[in-house]
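Shipment paperwork, digital attachment
Item: protein structure file
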Amino acid sequence: MFTRLLPHLPAWRRALRRRRRTLALLAAAAVAVLLLPSFVPASVQGTDVVVAAQDLPAGTELAPEHLRTVEIASSLVPAGAADAVGALEGERLAAPVAEGSALLAEDLLGTEGMPLDEGTALMAVPVPEVLVPHLRSGTRIELLMSDPVDATTSRVRAEVRSLAGSAAADDPVAVGASPGVQALVLVDRHRSGEVAHALGTSTVTVAVIG
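Attachment content:
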């Protein structure tokens, strides 16, 4: 076998010499592919981030089919983003999340009850779906309450704590409000009775004030 190859060796050597530059470039490219990642700054290296696999409404209990991971530059990862699907399974959304958006801690309902601020009461208030994208924990709103009997109007400031799922169209506490989700809000304790009465008997309009 070796004796058969001997006559071809000079031709192979000539071919290698002619392609020496091409082979050198290929070898250099291979070395670069192996070494370049170690020189890339950590801020631009890829990091896994969990995003919504589809549009998810408020109140969704997260399951694997709702989520997927994408790789983005570390410098672009938003604070509170999860890097593994398993870390979010079983969590419930406090607000809607659009397909492809990162799932953040602020988008989730807390698993433990948060302490109430002194002098406040926690109440459920129906809000129109059109306002949901503008509501997050800490959003300040105003409840505009119109009494149809004496034609008076009053205003109560409130602060959103979370969103708690869909409200049925025939919900008895949603008198005068469009079907939407229930917002858990903090109101002044001294005015909680007034708000509760208005939710049952009056027209309550929610306004986002920042």
